[in-house]
Amino acid sequence: MTNKLLLLLLAGLTTAHANASTSALPATSFSIMDIQGQGSSSPLLENNDSRQLVLVSGAITAIVTKELGKDLRTGFFMQDVTGDNNPLTSDGIFVSASSEMLGLHSLKIGDIVNVTGSVQETYGWTQIRATQLSPSGKHVNIAATIVEAHPKDKSFQQTLERFEGMLIEFTPQSNMLITRTFGYDRSARRNNMALAQGAVNSQANQYFAANSPQSKAQHLSNVQRLVVVESFNKANNGEIPWYQEFGQANENTTGSDNYLRIGDQVNSLTGVLAYSYDNFRLYVTKNVNASNFSHLNIRTITPPLKAGDVTVATFNVLNYFNSPFGGSANPQGQSRGANTKQEFSMQAKKIVAAIVALDADIIGLMEIENNGYGEKSALADLLSRVNEKFGTDKQYVMAQDKDIKFIGTGAITNQVIYRPSVASLQSLRIIDMPQQHAPKSGKESGNNYMRDAVTPTFLLKASGETLTVSVNHFKSKGSTCWEDVAQQKYKDVDRQGSCENFRVSGAFHLGQQLANVAGHTLIVGDLNSYGHEDPLLVLTNRDKVVQAHQILAARDTYIGGDANSGRLLHGNEGAKITTSFGYVNAVALKHPKAYGYSFKDVVGTLDYILASPSLLPHIVDATEWNINASESTLLEYGVKYTGDMAKYGNMYRSSDHDPVLISLTFPVQKKAVNSGGLGFIAAFLLLLAIFSAKNRQQKLANKMINHRL
What we know:
CATH 2.40.50.140, 4 domains, 12 helices, disordered N terminus
């Protein structure tokens, strides 16, 4: 039996089976616009009768020969040749057809085909499931329609519904901005990119308190303005299928324009519009290059920070581990960073490039390996690499207490490096952060930990001011704590992520401990909380808290151990926190719309520099430096998911968090003259007076001698 005969037989069986289930209702001719209607679902399905067969024709705009994931079947997109000139109805539709059925016809883009099949709503996407295909032998080229909102549309999602199934183009008048660069989509489980109409999507709690009406409105807006950019085939490692030149650049420079960053605007992007996983999805039909985008969020080679006398920075170094490559052993026997020596070398280059460009006087580091302070520690390794790039006046040293070998017991820790030419270390506190030891609940053990706060106090040499810098890394949003399971049943209704109550415990305890420290104070680091989430409100202020919203600390929390060895912070009822500590979010003060982290198609801030009120007159500037969050994950040092893609030792995507900086200015201390100096000056003046007197006497004597002569 020939392959073609086999395909004919299979197609006949498929058609026969489909006709058997729908034979009660003969096919009726409809236009694509009749099927799509003006609503979110087909008007033909209002009576819930999916047995109705339709006969419809259109020109093919895209062909899907291989299924993509679980949401894009084989088939093709087709569009009415003339349309109905009604902007409220779509002129296009997706036709689901088996690969066997497609194999019977040598279909090409532009072919006009007649389709018999049933109308279906597949998870909100109007489609036709074909039972029979009949090419007309005619051909026409369909031009892409530029997407513009209609005045009657209440949201951009409604606008997109008008174009579902059509060949469309986004142009500057569509006002589409990149809200997630090309990377992993957790919903569809493949790499793609996301656009937002009008503005980059902000995390719901970034500007509004959790559970507030404004936060809920922001989340709805994020959903309604989002479009995911897809390719028909799963992307190969290190490739954007529709942008072949992406990532091509030069070592240690901003490179060519072949990059895509959050905030960049679409100039031209053409594809067919589908819907799955609760999002509209644009399957690109025309390859692009750098000219298809405008870099509204350009790369910079130095932080956009106004200069002051002293600069403090915080930087999450994305699991900088050297123990697998000749470094000191990790106390937990873990390695969370580079997998090979080559990857570690690239990671080090990128991290060093970023730190050198930061050029800060004091730097708090997070996610550095907790393998001590010795010559082979990760901290010493990084420090030596950085110091190689600076002259003697800009060298860094560790903020270290000789009696401390490790910070806590975790695999990673917080650390501080500083320039002794600018500051001298007065003391180093390690603030034990809370531990949770609650009853087991389901798969949640109830035992949770937070990294200790490394808190050095410095004397600033030029001004004589005292500055305490507390470096923190609060519990992550990704793991679970007791409250997430036992009380919230894994539901994140206020979008604060997991363990928000435990982070509140950390913020409350940290605020209490620092209240006992004299002088100016900065709380810096990765607090794993967006701008108006509960832990930030505890440390700053409660101005935007909804009256009915309660800020709650975790239950069964202890300091320095468990119930047997630690000090109780809050018991089995937890605690309601009603106070705040009054710190000022320095970046929000100077740049309210700044962001430094990207996750699930939204941006916000997780890393902070919070200043004590005493520092307000001294803040020159504070900023996030967007070298990481805006960039694609493909540019990171790891090669597991990037294939043969070239890697560059520059600062772009050196981490997943952006560094944060603050510049401060203080009056220069007037140096007092010591008693020894006064004695010297007095003696000098006395000698000068004596010499002058003797000189005058000699002149007078000479004058008298001359007079006698």
